[in-house]
Each structure stands twice: as structure tokens, then as C-alpha cells.
Sequence to fold (271 residues):
Amino acid sequence: MAKNDRTNRSVRRFLPAVGVLAVLTVWVTVLNPRMQSRQYRAKMTRLLQSSAPETRKQAAWAMIERPDRELETLIIRGAMGDEPDPDVREAYVYTLGKLGDPRNLAAIESAIDQDPSGYVRAAAWLAAARVDSQHFRTLAEAGPLPQRPWDRIGIAQGRLCLGDVNDVNELLHWAEAGDDSQRQVASRAMFKWLRPLLDAAGRWPVGATVREGEPWPPGLIAEIKVRCATMDLQAIADETVPRRAAAYRVRRNVGRLTRTRDGLASLLFGE
Fold:
């Protein structure tokens, strides 16, 4: 009997701790995420409606790592013409492409068809390639749109992003002969997707110091043309691009786990 009494007292001592743990579990898994979602949505809505274009751009980019369908509707409306600043519209269609949601394809296609800025249309082509590669290829092979220089750049970078090197010479051409913006976009696309292919084959020029977003100098463009013409670039892309996609998924998942861990640590141990 005495033993049972001691057991009961021990259980009663632990009951408050169990209750606190249960409340904390509900808070962490149910209530707090909902509250955080509302706070996040309200904050991002303010940023997307800011009078400062740079703030709207940064808000759009931030959504790539934390998607929210309600916020995406604001970006969709902006990408389809509500946003007056072309640099911000470019950020919007870029974000829609990175999110990869097929529901956003109509807005991306609208930007391809109707946006007056070639810079935005080029970004929309790339976004279409990321969201639906087959639909992107269908669009790229049909109609008069690809005859416009910016659309040709957009299609070329979309294909290269997917591991199709057939339009590399198109990018090399515009990196050399385009205006400042076209040279920058074409060079950036090659830095992101052509340079790794040459590097994987040991054919990236030693000492080339270009950085992402910088136009390539004529000497480097000439050298890359020669090197691309003397190698089976498509075979290298076929070998390396699938691994690139897998590596990206690993980095993205690690990032999400890290943010979750930091959020829990802040909740449990923060001031």
C-alpha cells in the first residue's frame, strides 16, 4: 500500500511537467506556426505594397524560401501588369519561376506575350522553363515571339538552364553584340549554367575572373566559342545537370531544416 502511495505521489509530481510539455507541443506544432504565418503574411503584404521598388523586389525574392499562396496572388497581379516598375516585374516573374508552381504558368505566359519590357520577357521565358519544361519548349518553337532579341535571349537561357546547349551560341552572340543589359543577362546565364559545364570538363579558362552579373570581356567570349566548338558540350550537360538538380534539393532541404531549428531555439531559449 505504501509503495502504491509513493507511486501515486511521484505521478502527481510529474503531472504539471507533462501538462506544460503538452501545451508547449500544441504551441510549437499548431498554434505558433499559424500565428507566425499570419504575422509573416501581414509583414510581407506591407513589403510588397511598399512605395520603394527595391523593397518590393526583396520581398518577392524572400518568398522563394517561404512560399505563401495568398502572397503569390499579389505577385501574380504585379507580374501581369499591376506593377509599374519593370525591374520589380522581373523579380516577380523570377520568383514565380523559382517557386515552380504550375498554377502560376498563366501569369508567366502573360508576361511573355504582353510585357513591354524585353528584360522582363527574358526572365519570364526562364521562369516558364523552370515551371514546365515541355510547355516552355512548345512556346519557344511556335509563333513570331522568338524573333525578338530579348525573347531569343530568354529562350536561350531557359534551354541552357534545362541542360540543352543548342542555343549557347545565341547567348555568346548577345554577350558580345547586345546592349549593356543584354550583355549582362546573357553573360549571367552563361556564368550560371555554361561555366559549370566547362569547369566539369576541365575546359574553363585558367585565370578567368568574371563574376556573376558581370558582362564577359570580348577575349573571354572568343575563347569560350573556340572551346565549345571543340567538345561535346551536350554530353557533358547530360551527365552533370541531373546531379546539379539533386545537389540543389539537398541544399534547399538543409536550409529549411536549419531555419526550423533556429526558430525552435528562439522560441524555447530566446529572450
Observations:
- Residues 23-32 have pLDDT under 50 and may be disordered.
